[in-house]
Amino acid sequence: MMLRLDNVTKVYKVGAFGGKTLTAVDRVSFDVPEGQVVSLIGESGSGKSTLGRMILGLVPVTAGSITLDGAPVRPGKEYYRHVQGVFQDPFSTFNPVFKADRVFQLIREAYFPAATAAEWDERVRAALRDVRLDPDQVLGKYPHQLSGGQLQRVLIARALLLDLKLLVADEITSMLDASTRIDVLNLLAEIKGRGLGVLYITHDLSLGNYLAERTVVLRHGTVVEMGATDKVFGRPLHPYTRQLLSAVPRLHDPWEDAEPVTSCLYHDSGAAGGLAEAEEDHFVACARLEGCREERLEGRPGGRPEGVLKGRLEGRLKGRLEGR
Amino acid sequence: MSLRVSDLKVHYRTLRGDVRALDGVSFELGDAEILGLAGESGCGKTTLGKSLIRMDGRMRHVGGTVELDGTELPIGDDRRMNDFRFHEVSLVPQYSMSALNPTRKIGKMVGELLRSRGVTPDTAKLLGRLDAVGLPHEVLDRYPIELSGGMKQRMVMVVSTLLDPSLLIADEVTSALDVSTQKAVAKALAGFRDDGFVKSMIFITHDISLTYQIADTIMVMYAGKLAEKAPARTIVEAPRHPYTRMLIDSLPEVGVRHTDRRLSGIAGSPPSLLDPPAGCRFRDRCPLAFDRCAEEPPAAEVAPGHFVACWKA
């Protein structure tokens, strides 16, 4: 299984009568391989949820392509057999007038009409045990009788009943308390062992770092840095990633002041927003920062051929890496 | 001593009986001290903050006293509290995003607010405060919709502290903000104390790592009671209450990967406060619980300034 995003772009029409446009996601490319957790990190407005929604087929793609095992996203019963999403607020996901286990019944009606009641009950119980829930405590309860952590796990269990290949988890722990959130994260780490890919969308760098093999950092709809999590967080190269990391409150270390993002080390990089490979499995983009753009315009009015640029950038990145 | 809270009890009235959201909490807050109030949802931290400034209709002051700078606050009496609100005690609410009047330019709104309190607006002071939080003076001529979330939050902070209150209560002020904005707002709050705009502060949040960055003392609450209170460094480096210890152990930090060190949460959930069990309220989730926990542990001072409500501490 492999989910592949290739130059995915989303342009929303905004303003009265859709007169203006807003580019929420701009030429984003990355993969989610099977058996891996990829975390998509960004602040509000970075386009991370829009990406999740496009992968789930809830929002159409403006340009570029999203493919699962080589086949394009075609929202429908067959697609949702393999791709499911879990969202931020478990209390609004459930219909409060029905019992929470109705979500399992709906799966049975849609996908497994041939299963007998006893067979199905056994499968539901097994799925609940897989997400570390006691079936007797959860079945037959209304959503308000369960905690947020329990509800999120019910939704993960529901997804696991299907022949799941990809789970899109959009901020699924941000409404949970610190003491229960870590158990849901551990659960995501466990289920990837079944060979399914998990796209974990979050604004919390420490959670993404804890869980994911690979990390994609988004800013204003473009990827600024991506690669193996230990490389992106261990040797962050992009000033934006550095600034984010320095702003995360940590236990034991007081806040330090980061270098401001106004001057960009990589302003020589291509204006197309391409990514340069700094080391194996670690890609960095030129920040499309305002100050940086001005500097670039002043610095090289004529522009240089792209190949030269790329070579120079890679030289600098290497120097930066070795210097540290 | 700036604030002294003794055995404060505040209950919520519901159809099924009283919810004991705050069930006998005592603590003191020194001059120029920032107290971080941490705990899970439903532990009573917001109730405590609200009790000190304005109780809503469902809340009832059942017992205990609150003393600010030597004067007892009439917290149960909504009308008499008016003399203290904003002059002595002020609040930066969680909902700052919607706290500003959308139909007024900000400068006009601030003027109206001050006059409603019988104070003549002092423009020089207001501009000075804007500089202190890093807002441009032009914001006064803008509508709230033209400001970003972090700017609105900082504007509300300026408005809440214009009358130089003695105590400022900041309730989850950063939970809706991005990490970089969160840092700027938290630092601006700490700056208010350093510059003497407010004498002391209670900083309420569910995020212990954030509290650690700006608070001098951290108080951890559990199910309407105090679990542990100590200097910030002690809470993080050497917690004595099993709840604090487990809570801190469950926090993933940048640099911790699940493949290297697997963290675990706290099994179970807090007890219902409608009819809380006798004895220690953390007993059912506590790995150290023993017979004596059926008796309620008092908040004992195990070291100077370090209070723990646990028999095993």
From TrEMBL, chain B:
Residue ranges of every copy of the ABC transporter domain listed in the record = 3-248
Tell me where the transmembrane regions lie: none
The protein's matches in InterPro entries, at most eight in alphabetical order, are given as: AAA+_ATPase (IPR003593), ABC_transporter-like_ATP-bd (IPR003439), ABC_transporter-like_CS (IPR017871), Oligopep_ABC_C (IPR013563), P-loop_NTPase (IPR027417)
What is the annotated signal peptide range for this record? none
- SUPFAM superfamilies per record: P-loop containing nucleoside triphosphate hydrolases
Q: Which UniProt keywords apply?
A: ATP-binding, Nucleotide-binding, Transport
GO terms of molecular function: ATP binding
Q: Which PROSITE patterns match?
A: ABC_TRANSPORTER_1, ABC_TRANSPORTER_2
NCBIfam families for the chain: oligo_HPY
Protein name listed in UniProt: Dipeptide/oligopeptide/nickel ABC transporter ATP-binding protein
Q: Which organism is it from?
A: Streptosporangium pseudovulgare
Record lineage? Bacteria, Bacillati, Actinomycetota, Actinomycetes, Streptosporangiales
